[in-house]
Every structure is written in structure tokens, then in C-alpha cells.
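Appendix B, Record 12. Input sequence as logged:
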Amino acid sequence: MRRGFITLGTWCLDRNIVLDFWPNEDMAAHVHHITLAGGGSACNFAVNIKKLDPEMHVETQGLIGDGEKADFLMSIADTFGIIRSGLIRSDLGDTQTTDAFVSQKTNRRTHILYAGVADFLTPEHFDFSNTTAKIAHFGLPSLHKTMDQSWQGEENGWLSSLKEAQKHGLHTNLELVAGNETKLKEIVVPCLPHLSSLVVNDHEIGAITGIQTQSNNATNIDKIKFAVNSVLEKGRMDFVLVHFPQGAILVTRDGKEIIQPSVDIPLQLIKGTNGAGDAFSAGFFYGIHENWPLLDAIKLGHASAAASLRSVETYTCVQSVRECLDLTNKWGWRSEIA
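Logged structural output:
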């Protein structure tokens, strides 16, 4: 019987840089402090799951460099008990690095990416033959040059890897990232028929459908629902879930709709949004893994995301399942989603 998670793809070194505000071009801003942490969907999701439940089986596969940055990422995996035999060191380039700038004025994040060895990641770096995991969490398309291109007759390497994972009986999910919308759509749309689920934010669902889901910096709920149904028509996933600061909307293949507002975390406790999406996904999929009702899984996703907002780093403030849920009892839920 399968149990646990396998994360595949992006492991990078995050330099979390807190500045007073994000400047316009040719202008300057003052940096308050810089911290180093693991980053990327494969790292963040894996660590978050282990923080939610240290006993949960978590393994990972990806490509990193062969220097001190890679040593640092390996130490993170070891610290949290993540099985890292599939995390391959390469001398083809330096470890992927992200400068994650967080504005003290807005708490908004801006990522500046150096791809490094991530450009050389291919489907051949993934092996599903011996995994006992139940859920495979992939990411991040549009940030891996070789994976983003055609691969041995398939439209891209992500599609090839998703097909292989499903052949081995794994539930497949694909984590996205805000970036070039045209490129993201070209990569992700062919993958939709080979996803068991899709969990994205409001910007990402808009990017892959070409639907404007935001207006005046606010999420348009009706447009979100329209985009979700468009994705369900193109794919075979059991459900699509879209999260955004005010809440989340899930629609199942048979048309069931669940809407859940987010946690009403006090504004003064919010330090940054970096990693909140990864924390949401980890909390939600923990509930899915444990066969919780969909609404309860969404609530844990919101709880995990709220916990993570208390730090500029991606996973530092995520706590155990019980402790995250206790925060919802302390802070409550937003009264409405719009």
C-alpha cells in the first residue's frame, strides 16, 4: 500500500532579502537583512510536509550543483528526514539560486532567478521504479530549460515525467510559478490530461487559460470559476483548486464546488508571502493523503499558509498539523471571500 510523498524538480538556494520597499528602475532601496534558506517547490513542499508530520514518508528527486550551496540544501533534507537519494549533484553548473526580495512596505515578494544547473534537469533524473510514495508533487515548469522543451517525442519533459509517474500508480500534481504567461500555458496545457489534480493560485489559473482572473488587484470569483471549468474540460484531474489571499475555490470533476475563506491572520503578524503557496499545497495534500473530507483539507491548507506568513522565509513558521489548526481557532476565518 502506497504512503507518503515524492517531490520532483526545483531545489534552489533562497537568499531572502528584506528591503524597505521595491524601487523603480534606476532607484535605490535599503536592505535590512539577508537570510539563506532552501527554496523551490520540491524543497518547500517536502519540508512543509515533514513539519506538519515528522513521521510522514517524504522523498525527493532533483538536480543541484556540486559546491557549498548544494551542501547546504543536502543538510536541509537531512535535518528534516527527507530521503534524498534522488537528489543528484552535477558539475554542469552551479546550484539554482533565487534572490527573494520582500518589501516591508507591502509584504509583497519579487523573485530574481539564476537557473544554473536547473537548466540541465531532464526526465532521466526521475526514477519511479522503487518509490513507495502515494503522491508525486512536480515543479516548476518554465524554470527548467531542458524540461520545458520537447523530449523524446513528447511536447515537453514535464509531460513525459507525468506519464511515467502515472504508469507507476502515483497521484500527480504540478506546482506552477508566476512568470511568462505564454510560456507557462504552452508547457502546462499539454500536461493537463496527465494530472490527477491541479492546485494553483489565481494568477496561475489565469495564465494557463488566458482568462483575466484579477481586476483592480482583486480576485474575480466568477472568472476563477470559469477558468477552473475550462481546465477541467481540458484535463482528467479529479479536482482543480485555486487559492488566493481571501480564500480558495475547489471544483471536482462531477461539478461539486467548495468555497472556503482564508484564515483571518492579524495584519501585523504578516512578514512576507514567500512560500505561502507551497505551504497551502502541503497542508491541503496532507489532508488528501489522509483521506480527509475536501473541506477539511482546504482548511489545513489555509492554516499552513497562514502559519508561513509569519516569516519572510518559505517554511520557517509552518508547524505541526495540530498547531496550524490551533491558529485557526485563535484567529478565526475571514467572514467573506470577496
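The longest strand covers residues 31-39.
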